[in-house]
Design goal:
- The structure is a homodimer.
- Chain A is mostly helical.
- Chain A folds into 2 domains: 1-47, Homeodomain-like (Arc Repressor Mutant, subunit A, Orthogonal Bundle), CATH 1.10.10.60; 50-184, Tetracycline Repressor, domain 2, CATH 1.10.357.10.
- Chain A has helices at residues 9-27, 30-37, 41-45, 51-70, 79-92, 94-100, 111-140, 150-161, 171-184.
- In chain A, 23% of the residues are buried.
- At the A-B interface, α1, α8 and α9 of A face α1, α8 and α9 of B.
- The first copy, chain A, binds a DNA duplex through residues 1-6, 29-31, 39-43, 45-46, 49-51.
DNA sequence: TATTTTAGTTACACATGTGTAACTTTTGTG
DNA sequence: CACAAAAGTTACACATGTGTAACTAAAATA
C-alpha cells in the first residue's frame, strides 16, 4: 500500500552522479539534489538520514558495478588483447574514479559512514585483481620484466586512464595513444 | 605611517596554500583562513574584496613561480638529463597542479576574477614551453619518433607527475620509476 | 603631544545549508 | 467507504558562511 514514489533509486543515483561531477563533494547539497530530482529535500531525508550516508552508499554501489565490470575482462586472450579489453572498460568508468576520490573528504558523522568508508577501501583491492591478472599475463609472455613492481605498474595504468583528452580526439584513437604510452612510453 | 601588519603576504599565501590542499576549493572559507593566520576575517577583507579574488590572485602568483622554475631547466644537457632535471622541478610543484585544477570552480563574481582566469589560462601555455623544448631535444636525438604529437606527450608527462606515491617510496627512487615509465612504459 | 594614517576588531544583516516535526496526499485493503 | 500505510510537503530552529560599517589600536610625523 501507500502512495506511488515520485523518484526511483535509479533517479536518485543518476542525479547524485551528475551533481558530484559538476559541483564536487563540498559543492554537493541536499537542496541541489532535491531540486534536480524535482522533489522536496525532506523527501530524500526520508530515505537517507544525511548527505554523508547518501553519498557513501552511492559510492559503494558504483564500486560494486565497477568491480563487476572489470572482472568480466576475457582472460583467455593474449596480453595485448587483455590490456585493450581492460582499457576500454576502465575508460567507461573514468568519472567514477574522480568521484571515488571524494571518499576521503566525507565526514565520519555516524558509525555507518565510518564502516562503509572502510568497506570502500577494501573493495579497492577488488578493483586491482583483474589488473594484476593482466600484468601477470604480460610477465608470462615476457613483455613485462619479471622484477617490476606490480603495484607501481597498476598505479601507472590507473593514472593514465585519467589523462585528460584536451585535444578532444575520438575515443578510439585516444585509447590507442594511451595503450601505446602504457606499452612503450614516449620512446620509439 | 600606520600600525605594523600582523601578517605578511607570505603568511597569507602560505595558509591559503595549506588550506586549499587540505579542504579543497569548496571547503575553503575566509573564516578558516583567518583562523589559521590568527586574525579576524575582516582583516583579510581589507586586502581582498572576496574569496574568489583572493584565490585567483594566489593562483596567478603560484603560476608565475612555476613558470619561472620550469624555465630554468638547463637545456644544454642531453635529452635524458633534461628530462631528469624537468621531472625534479615538476615534482616540486605537484600540489600546485592540484590547486590549479580548482580554477574552473571559481565563480565569476567580478570582472577582475573573469580576467585573471583568462590570464591563468594563457599562462598555462608558458608552462608547456620548457616541456616542448625537452621533447624537441628527444626527437632530435632520435629517441622520440618525429611523428608523435607533442601535446599528447606532454599531457602524458604532466599526468604521470601527479601519480600518487601509494607505496611511500623515497622521492628519488619514485622519480626513477616515473622516468622509466615515461621513457619505456611497462615493457622491458 | 596632537594628528593623521593604516591595521585590525566587533557586531550586524543577510544568505544558504542542515535535519526534523507536524501536516497533507495518495494508494491499497478490510 | 473509511482507514492504515507509505510518500511527500511545509515550516521551523539552528548552524555556518559572506561582506560591511562603525569602532579601536598603534605607529609616524608635524
Amino acid at each position: 500500500m501507500g502512495r506511488d514514489k515520485k523518484f526511483s533509486e535509479q533517479d536518485l543515483w543518476h542525479h547524485t552522479h551528475q551533481l558530484l561531477l559538476s559541483v564536487g563533494y563540498q559543492g554537493f547539497t541536499m537542496s541541489l539534489l532535491a531540486q534536480s530530482i524535482g522533489v522536496s529535500r525532506a523527501a530524500i531525508y526520508k530515505q537517507y538520514p544525511n548527505k554523508e550516508e547518501l553519498i557513501i552508499q552511492f559510492m559503494v554501489w558504483q564500486m560494486e558495478k565497477s568491480i563487476e565490470n572489470l572482472s568480466n575482462v576475457n582472460f583467455s586472450q593474449s596480453f595485448e588483447q587483455q590490456l585493450e579489453d581492460l582499457l576500454v572498460r576502465m575508460f567507461d568508468m573514468r568519472d567514477l574514479h574522480q568521484i571515488l576520490g571524494f571518499a576521503s573528504q566525507i565526514n565520519d558523522v555516524s558509525l555507518v559512514v565510518k564502516q562503509k568508508k572502510e568497506v570502500l577501501n577494501n573493495m579497492h583491492g577488488g578493483l586491482y585483481i583483474p589488473l594484476q591478472q593482466v600484468i601477470k599475463q604480460g610477465k608470462e609472455e615476457g613483455i613485462i620484466a619479471e622484477d617490476r613492481n606490480n603495484f607501481i605498474l597498476l598505479s601507472f595504468i590507473f593514472q593514465l586512464i585519467d589523462m585528460p583528452n584536451h585535444l578532444n580526439m575520438p575515443i578510439e584513437s585516444f585509447l590507442k595513444e594511451i595503450k601505446l604510452l602504457i606499452l612503450h612510453g614516449i620512446s620509439k
